[in-house]
Amino acid sequence: MQIAIDAMGGDHAPGEIVRGAVAAAREKIAGIILVGDKRRLEAELKPLHPPASLEIVHTEQVVEMDEQPALALRRKREASIIVATRLVKEGRAAAVVSAGSTGAQMAAALLILGRSGKIQRPAIATIIPTLKGPKLLLDAGANVDCRPEHLYEFALMGNLYAARVMGIREPRVGLLNIGTEACKGNEQTLGAYNLLKGSPLNFTGNIEGRDILAGDTDVIVCDGFVGNVLLKFGEGMAQALFTMIGREIKNSFRARLGAALVLPALRGLKKQVDYTEYGGAPLLGVQGISIICHGSSNARAIKNAIKVAVRCVEQGLVAGLGQLPGANGEGEVVKCQPS
């Protein structure tokens, strides 16, 4: 299985991207096609002594993080993310992995791969660590304005991904809202609730933000605006907590003495909330596997993202998504009953 890597995308490209790709190739996770400036990539590869099977597809154009995605893709038709996505379309690669501009990757996937089946809006599905293991959140940023039927389709896609790729039997699907009552929320969530309530999914109702980390819901559905804010708040909160713990330990002699005993547990906890452990987030709803990585991804994150891509291919994710029914029309607003 060949995986195309946008080697020029990301805050630490091409160095960390190349190291992660080489690690995946060495462990025989997948065959690797690095897409980017051949001269720069060969310079990075030389001290790493990569497997002979690793391939380079040369291109000098890159979509920068601050560029407007649609405009950049029109002007840079040989940008690394476009070339890498094209390899998937042509069948030379089974999936594409990138830590570059999320907007450019989404645009390239839609332009080159196209939408999957009856799905109207692709969604980014990301892993959320909880007290009961990894759970799935979508959309994490692909769609900031959604209608009820879009949230319904996110639920369908998330349910399929959780079952096939994450191995969760009969995933519990919840709608992120400001209250658990059926009549809470705005028109978007009220309509989506009605659609989900009448669906064949294992819909458990609304879920509040404070309940996500309990882990009782396997698939959390929301629009991309809310999902992206939630995701970044969680990342910042985890970093802040570890910084505060470290500060308190340094400020107390007794705490420093006890730190040696709890350090292994803290390391294990940090590993559970570290995004590099989960690699990347699939863009669900396109006719191919496109894995979106954090812009700050290091080599470990890239290697794990390649693992995610391989599992998506092995579980027939694209074919499964293509068979989903989609949603027709908006759900009716659920009316509050007087108490």
Element pattern in H and E:
EHEHEHHEHEEEHEHEEHHEEHH
Q: How are strands sequenced across the largest beta sheet? A: 3-2-1-4-12-11-5
The backbone outline, from C-alpha atoms, is globular
Number of domains: 2
Strand content: 15-25%
Q: How would you state the average pLDDT, rounded? A: 89
What's the story with the biggest beta sheet? 7 strands, mixed
Counted beta strands = 12
The percent range for helix content is 40-55%
User: What do we call the CATH topology of the largest domain?
Assistant: Isopropylmalate Dehydrogenase
Measured between the Cα atoms of the first and last residue, the distance is 59 Å
Compute the CA-based radius of gyration: 21 Å
- The name of the CATH architecture of the largest domain is 3-Layer(aba) Sandwich
Report the structural category.
alpha/beta
The number of helices is 11
Low-pLDDT windows of residues: 329-339
In CATH, what is the homologous superfamily of the largest domain? Isopropylmalate Dehydrogenase
CATH level-1 class of the largest domain: Alpha Beta
Subcellular location: Cytoplasm
Family: Belongs to the PlsX family.
Protein name: Phosphate acyltransferase
Enzyme class: transferase
Give the topology, please.
Elements: E1 2-6, H1 15-26, E2 31-36, H2 38-45, E3 55-58, H3 69-75, H4 80-89, E4 95-98, H5 102-113, E5 123-124, E6 126-130, E7 133-138, H6 148-164, E8 173-176, H7 187-197, E9 203-207, E10 219-221, H8 224-250, H9 253-272, E11 280-284, E12 289-293, H10 299-314, H11 317-322
Parallel strand pairs: 1-2, 1-4, 2-3, 4-12, 7-10, 8-9, 8-10
Antiparallel strand pairs: 5-11, 6-7, 11-12
